[in-house]
Amino acid sequence: MKSFVALSVILLATSASSSTTSIPLAKLQGTGAYLKGSPDAGRARAAFLRRRTDNANTVPATYKGYPSYVTKVGIGNPPTYYNLIVDTASANTFCGTGTPYVRTSTSAPTNENVHVNHEGGSFTGQEYTDQVTLAPNLVIAKQSIGDVNSSAGLDLTDGTLGLGPRDLTLGTLSPDSYVTIPTVMNNLVLHGHIQNEIFGIYFAPPSSNDDTSEYLDGALTYGGTNSSLYKGNLTWVPVTKTLPTSRYWGVDVTLCTYGNHTVIPTKTAGIVDTSTTLVLLADNFFSIYKNAIQGASMDPNTGLLEIPRSSIKHMRPLNFTLADRVFSLDVAAQLFPADQNTAWGGVPEKRYGTVGPFFGKNSVVEDLDFVLGMKFLERYYSAFDADGNRVGFAQTNHTFSTYEG
């Protein structure tokens, strides 16, 4: 594990109900411009996700630059604990990119090689089954995991906890390239640890004022949701039928507006992705948004939208309509906190936006036209229901300012 990754979280599990378990998440922290490159990494990831086909032999890997939230996972007996990225757009679970995989008496080779690759990062290794400890009461006796031998662009953490649909593992093994790998969520249900194949995710916003919560940085709940972390009821959105987005946790937006400007005029599909930082829009949609903010321009150094301070007071909410409900990003949600500028490689006195373009990709009829990344999910609790083939959203229980100058 790189020395600049500071993790203060301990493995602590509490039950939100008799059949759910919530685990604290930790934010990765670095020094200097440790987030520089994240916007371009997220765009490269989105470009790969759009191109993936049913018979593709690669799936998205988590790569250098953007990952911000990790969970502690024990592998082996006695377990070695790894800080794994929570990733809803991939389904392989692997370790060894930081802390090496430690084999114990429960580690069993499957005689399969594993390879996950795309333009932003890759890993190659061997597939094992091993005991996996997600929480003291959530121990999977034989979970398939990858042991990384070599990797590129994956050096910020120890690996990834794949929470995407199981079919995303197709083609990642060899010689058995036509089989899929049971995910952690599959096995939790199979072995009776949880009743429902549902998980909930809470990402604490940068301006979080809940300093006493055990979920200071965030929480991952297995088997359901943690209602103490959001307000009201979840709005459930069916997984889209539009390819290739339907292969992921994809949803349809029926309208997106910025003030009195229509950014997305009709139903279009995109994904909910915990491992993309920004809210990404197809270029033609983003152009409408950018042009509506006086003086806004893309900053080539950070890859972020630079917004003149004089324009902030004139900014308006960015509203996404999902399942007939409006989910709004107010002005503060559209801006990175100024004290993060150095981390993004920016200039301290400037302001940068959390919404960005794909670069070179306009909307078409059958496609992936937006990504609701961390900056959306820091405002809205999310739930992923494989049983019901749907994604749920509710406002987090934090009180946010409506303006940040």
What topology emerges from the helices and strands here?
Elements: E1 14-17, E2 20-24, E3 26-27, H1 38-51, E4 69-75, E5 80-87, E6 94-95, E7 108-118, E8 121-135, E9 138-152, E10 159-162, E11 173-174, H2 184-190, E12 198-203, E13 218-222, E14 235-238, E15 250-253, E16 255-258, E17 261-264, E18 268-272, E19 279-281, H3 283-291, E20 297-298, E21 305-306, H4 309-312, E22 318-322, E23 325-329, E24 352-353, E25 355-357, E26 370-372, H5 374-377, E27 380-385, E28 390-395
Parallel strand pairs: 5-10, 6-9, 18-26, 19-25
Antiparallel strand pairs: 1-2, 2-13, 3-4, 4-5, 4-8, 6-10, 7-8, 7-11, 8-9, 12-13, 12-27, 14-28, 15-18, 16-17, 16-22, 19-26, 20-21, 21-24, 22-23, 27-28
What would you note in describing this structure?
The chain has 405 residues and is mostly beta strands. It folds into two domains: 14-200, Cathepsin D, subunit A, domain 1 (Beta Barrel); 228-395, Cathepsin D, subunit A, domain 1, CATH 2.40.70.10. Helix content is 9%, strand content 36%. The protein is built from five helices and 28 strands. The chain has a seven-stranded antiparallel beta sheet with strand order 1-2-13-12-27-28-14. The protein has a six-stranded mixed β-barrel with strand order 4-5-10-6-9-8. A five-stranded mixed beta sheet has the order 15-18-26-19-25. A hairpin with a 2-residue loop joins strand 7 (108-118) and strand 8. Mean pLDDT is 83; it is low at 1-18 and 52-67. Belongs to the peptidase A1 family. It comes from Boletus edulis BED1. Residues 1-20 form the signal peptide. Keywords: Hydrolase, Protease, Signal.
